[in-house]
Please model this.
Amino acid sequence: MVAAFRLLRAEFDPRMTLTVAGPAAWPLPGPVPDGVRFLGPVPVRRVADLLDDADLFVMPSRFEGFGIAFAEALARGLPCIARDDFAMPELVVPGHNGALVRDDDPVALAYAIADVLQDEHVYARCAGSAAAVSAHFTWNAPHSRRSP
Model:
């Protein structure tokens, strides 16, 4: 993600910023790069605010058993970029609510990010489906009470 971010700042928008939340310490060698806002661990109560302040949720994780972070972002109307693997394609549909990448190629990730950022239709669909996503991914949804 950081390599793709550097490409995007150089080729797409030098004012672009990246917010990284979660790890207690910066996980990469060297200092936090320019344009990166490293927050470390974030209390659960702040997650919705972070999502509401973002333009895009990007997490090309190598493994997501379910992908709750994507459901949370989509429930806030935020398009997502994910890896085309495991549960992520069940939540992120290219051209509809985001994009999928196949590997660790920072150039491909940068292109996916730039494409989604420029696609007003993806943003409109995400905003329009946020309430439905939120209603679907709740403990009280009818599907959560059904037995398999």
About this structure: The chain has six helices and five strands. The CA atoms of residues 132 and 143 lie 14 Å apart.
